[in-house]
Design goal:
With about 475 residues, the protein is of the alpha/beta class. The chain has helices spanning about 70-80, 85-100, 115-125, 135-145, 160-170, 180-185, 230-240, 260-280, 305-325, 335-340, 375, 465-475, and strands at about 55-60, 65, 70, 80-85, 105-110, 130, 150, 170-175, 195-200, 225, 245-250, 285-290, 330-335, 345-355, 360-365, 385, 395-400, 410-415, 425-430, 450-455, 455-460. Helices cover about 25% and strands about 20% of the residues. Mean pLDDT is about 90; it is low at about 1-5 and about 5-45.
């Protein structure tokens, strides 16, 4: 396998001039799936790479190349821990969503992972953006992302969030509570109107963990359908001349791998659209079903069939609207993890191996400060030894981080070669979403860099957080 040598100079997007607003790209239309393409290489077993980026290729000495660049070279050049993001995989997944959901507004959920390059890629592929703060919004717009293609979310939007959204001309603001209505209306400039959606809680339990289920009444997001809060909020918004209610929004949760919850949400929200029409004589033209589309983190795990989801949602929406005597509203969806997650791989160096009784602990140079998800939700990953061929049988180990918490576990009960040792390189796939975006400053370790790979080239997108960065914020002495 040939590849281009890593460049010895890297771009620093932090100082680059923001590009002009980005055009919408046009694409060919192959089958609307997120299935990986074929892999080629020595001793290739397609199943073992099912959760890796489609560009993954095995190399001699058990190395892997992603985007045409060997992982060992990336680790040597950029250090570890480091996040590797396959640009082509991101773009491929964006295009698959647009094919699966024609005539639909597809918004990338920036909370999964956002940097200037990610915003640029998403905009070029024709997606909109879903943001949750003034910080995410400012980064996107100063990168050149068209603000009219941005939706602002949040259960507790600050005054700064709302002022920034109005100043930059954000396309939609999702109202999450009745107290937000008057506050937002008062901030809208005289003579203008802000388009809004109401976030509805449809009373549907879905999601991979209790902490990421947001479609039921026992959590902080949205306005309940069951107790009438959603209907009350709709009435109040319609009484605000500076707010233009254009539709309903719901988000059931995250890491959902079944289609049925989304179809139930469609039926319940169309029922609310019908009541709005009966009570107020208006037809709301938009329906946003949020995201939460699940991916597989380990081989053999289920993932949401996006093409199947799209087909069934459109059929359910058409049938429900016909039964209610309503025109079909314009649909919107908000994938985040399903675009960024499988496009990312994180690289760690082994620092120590400790055998205690029946347990083997493999400690690496990262941990819960760059991936808190195992500690928060018990997520399980499939790390792989790369860059060294071992003839020793595998054994179950627990891969742990370097932080001062017993719960700093990155992967439990995973099989790695029995001769795993300090200095070895581990690669963990499906690391592009909710890792670095949820990173912390625990133990003042510093957050890892993000490196993009494509066509045999690697470039730095986000530099490593240094001790100098950390010290510059500390001004209290």
């Amino acid at each position: 396998m040939s590849h281009t040598t890593l460049p010895r100079t890297t771009r620093t997007p932090q100082t680059a001039t923001p590009p002009a607003p980005l055009p919408t790209a046009t694409h060919p239309s192959p089958s609307p799936t997120l299935d990986h393409g074929p892999h080629h290489g020595p001793d290739h077993d397609p199943d073992q790479f099912a959760i890796w980026p489609a560009s993954t290729v095995p190399l001699p000495a058990d190395d892997l190349a992603i985007g045409g660049v060997p992982l060992t070279e990336l680790a040597d050049h950029f250090g570890t821990p480091a996040y590797v993001l396959d640009e082509d995989e991101v773009r491929r997944r964006c295009r698959a969503y647009l094919r699966a959901f024609p005539d639909t507004d597809v918004y990338y959920a920036a909370k999964a992972f956002l940097c200037r390059a990610m915003a640029h890629w998403v905009a070029e592929e024709g997606l909109g953006l879903d943001v949750c703060s003034a910080g995410e919004l400012e980064l996107a717009v100063t990168t050149g992302f068209p603000p009219e293609r941005i939706v602002l979310h949040g259960n507790a939007k600050s005054p700064t969030d709302l002022r920034t959204a109005l100043r930059l001309g954000v396309g939609r603001i999702v109202i999450d509570s009745t107290s937000e209505i008057a506050r937002l209306a008062a901030a809208v400039p005289v003579g203008s109107r802000q388009k809004v959606l109401i976030r509805v809680v449809p009373g549907i339990a879905a999601g991979g963990h209790a902490k990421i289920r947001t479609g039921t009444d026992d959590q902080k997001f949205g306005l309940s359908l069951a107790d009438g809060s959603a209907q009350h909020a709709i009435t109040r918004v319609l009484g605000q001349p500076r707010l233009e209610l254009v539709g309903l929004h719901c988000h059931l949760g995250s890491q959902i791998t079944a289609v049925k919850p989304y179809l139930s949400a469609v039926r319940r929200l169309v029922g609310l659209l019908a009541r709005v029409h009966e009570q107020h004589g208006i037809t709301l033209p938009e329906l946003d079903l949020g995201g939460g589309h699940g991916v597989a983190y380990r081989p053999g795990e289920p993932a949401l069939d996006v093409a199947g989801l799209a087909t069934k949602i459109r059929a359910e929406l058409a049938g429900s609207c016909a039964a209610a005597g309503l025109p079909v509203p314009r649909l919107a969806v908000e994938p985040g993890r399903a675009i960024a997650g499988p496009a990312g791989v994180v690289l760690y160096r082994v620092l120590s191996v400790k055998r205690t009784g029946a347990h083997t602990f493999v400690a690496v140079d990262g941990g819960m400060s760059d991936n808190p998800r195992p500690a928060l939700y018990g997520v399980r990953y499939a790390p792989r030894l790369v860059g060294r061929r071992s003839a020793v049988a595998t054994e179950p180990v627990t891969v742990v981080g370097r932080h001062c918490e017993a719960g700093d576990i990155l992967a439990s009960d995973v099989h790695l070669p029995g001769d795993i040792r300090p200095g070895d390189l581990l690669a963990v796939p499906v690391a592009g979403a909710y890792h670095l975006s949820m990173a912390s400053g625990y133990n003042l370790v510093g957050r890892p860099p993000v490196v993009a790979v494509t066509s045999g080239h690697a470039r730095l997108l986000v530099r490593r957080e240094s001790l100098a960065d950390i010290q510059e914020r500390d001004i209290g002495l």
